[in-house]
Amino acid sequence: MPRNLYMRYYLLGIILLAVDQLTKAVIRAKLAVGSSVNVLGELFRITHVENRGAAFSILEGKTGLLMIVTLAIIAGAIWYMHTHKGKHWLMYTSGALIISGGIGNLIDRATSGQVTDMFDFSFFSPVFNVADIAVVIGCGLLVIYILLEDKLKKN
């Protein structure tokens, strides 16, 4: 894959990271912790939550451990992407999403010891943010890539 094609994955990651950090900054500036604004009635709200743990608040208060695990995953993803050149675009897209989401939440943990979350759906318990969305979609794409890798090589 030519070098300029790799740049689109770096750009994707940078854009996602910027959107994540911007949305978090706006929420911190405009909404008090615990307050909500209805967007679609009770179905969807913007709620300012400060999460001191990981998903579903697991490992709450274990900021150091969460930062170490996040750094290891980011480093592993970067290493894998750079040592497996020429793979399918699905692998690079999943890597860019996982890395940018990880960095977004890592910045929060490093600067304040907690992660700012804001997307609140009545039918889904945890409140989440753009970085969380990127990581979940990235992991989903990675699973698809792994399951279809042999078929993708033939195309």
Description:
With 155 residues, the protein is an alpha+beta fold. Helix content is 63%, strand content 13%. The protein contains four helices and three strands. The protein has a three-stranded antiparallel sheet with strand order 1-2-3. Helix 2 (63-83) runs antiparallel to helix 3. The chain is globular, with a radius of gyration of 17 Å. The model has no long low-confidence stretch (mean pLDDT 89).
Radius of gyration: 17 Å
Mean pLDDT: 89
Tell me what portion of residues adopts beta-strand conformation.
Answer: 5-15%
Q: So what's the overall shape?
A: globular
Biggest pleated-sheet summary: 3 strands, antiparallel
Please give the count of helices. 4
Extended strand count: 3
Topology:
Layout: H1 3-30, E1 36-40, E2 44-51, H2 63-83, H3 89-112, E3 115-121, H4 130-154
Antiparallel strand pairs: 1-2, 2-3
What labels describe this entry?
155 residues; alpha+beta; 3-stranded antiparallel β-sheet; 63% helix; globular
